[in-house]
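Researcher: For the record, we're logging two predictions in this thread. I'll number them. Prediction 1 follows.
Model: Prediction 1, sequence and structure:
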Amino acid sequence: MARISRSEKVPKPMQNIFNAIVALTDTFCATHLDEEYALLARQATAALCRQRPSPLVTGYVQTWACGIVYALGFVNFLFDKSQTPSMLAAELCAAFGISKSTGAAKSKVVRDALAMRQMDPQWYRPSKMEGNSLAWTIMLDGFIVDARSLPRDIQFAAYTKGLIPYLPERK
């Protein structure tokens, strides 16, 4: 699985588009979500800006902003009432002035472009990572195991290879 850069650096020609989208996502996340979503939205926007050609060069910035937050919401179960924060997809789209069908379609473009999937460790909220079983599952000697149950030296090797998000605390 290829790792997406967590950088917010973007090519100079894309800087204005990045700034316009991030202004919208930062405002939305501050009002309705949290700083973790805002950070992930900035990183996703930057990753899309770095693609060649960038899909962000066509379309409206508010549509892209909605699609990016919608995609991150999909990954992090934002639309599940049992989660905090949570909201309906229609509410998210309405806040950006976008129809639900347009928001869902743009979200699919974002998810495809960044190879996002539900519970994707690359796009999962850090505060929820401990409970994300996908982030800790590795293959060891032909067996699928939870890296948190392995000896520290194997955990360290998995971490240095980018297979797990961080070294878990010892229990």
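Researcher: Logged. Prediction 2.
Model: Prediction 2, sequence and structure:
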Amino acid sequence: MIAGAAAGLLIFQNVLRPGQQQRIIGVLPFMESFLPYRADENARIPTALPQNSAISPEDLLSFALASPTPTTSPTATPTLAPTSTSALLPTLTATAMPTLMPSTTSPEVVPTATLESAFSLPTSARIYGLRGVFQTWNNCGPATITMGLSYFSWTEDQVYAASFLKPDEEDKNVTPSEMVQFVNEQTGVRALTRMGGTLEFIRAFITNGFPVIVSIGYAPEGEDWLGHYRAIVGYDDTQRQFFAYDSYLGTGQNGEGIAVSYDALDTAWQQFNRRFIVLYEVQNEGRVAEILGERGDLVRAAELALETAQDEVRREPRNGFAWFNMGTALLSLERYEEAAIAYDQARRFDLPWRMMWYQFGPYEAYFTVGRYSDVTALVSSNLNNGGAYVEETYFWQGQVYAAQGQVSEARASFNRALQANPLYTDAQDALATLDASS
């Protein structure tokens, strides 16, 4: 019996996958104490090494947006690897996040500051018809997009959504772009995503009957920080509260939604650069464009997100999320050197150790300017902290191998990414590039 118990414990700790471990814990809660120990020294994002750069962190708070800095090309990139990431990245961004500007017959676009008066937003509004969905283990993204789609009488469940979004249940993250692509390609509904949203935008979308899904940071009681999604279904200015359907917490009393204060939502939303997804029917695209205004243009949306991040860094210079958001906005503007410096600053402060499960901008920025050691450091940190189930970890590991001429190692990494998610087109394209070059 003792030998059997010891063998069972070894299997639980070293053979079973996290989902299988959780199912056992659901039946035998005491087994949670036997989960593999995670050393504290690994539970952090490594700090960047000092860089010899003409750009200082202070410069990022005051530069003009007119002309991007040239990309620093690595000095010894072999011919099998592209000189930038564009050749290895799919066209997902172009199709999933279309430029959506008002038509010539739309009302004049107004700045965000006057959005409320321009659209005569009421003091409260709510949309009805969403079906509450409690997520299965590690299935927040598919469950939340299923809730949002149910508003449009979509009848499939989270298992169906997951089959396109994360075929392996262990996959730790489904990005907003992946969810938008799923909606646009697999349903009759339309979706788009932008960074740099505002509370006023959420209210305007709800007023006009468009479900909004926000990316937030969330720490369940007794748990470490996680990335999470919430579907916003209503708001009330008098109480300064939003009402959300949450795949983890439920739909609130009588299905009215979980109440979340404006300030609490904005704080959690900042941790993902205020990224949002809006769902709509194609005939309402013009109205969505009117609400988005200048944020219908991807470049302008990134510029506005950058300005917000700059303001927040000025107010809170030690806010790692604000620095990280600055890096993400700069990356979208193809200002790679500045983005890398912003990410360096973010890594100086207390970012959650799971940050690189969800947001991959540092990989791309460092890779594009040739800072392969930084990419490798982040890959190693992620692999030590659960990132073995994040396909992007292996993708960027493979990118570094490919750029350094280590073809077999690159191929192995891209295949590991596809083991985590067989539908991951970045890795598919990267392998095709390797094959074409060999």
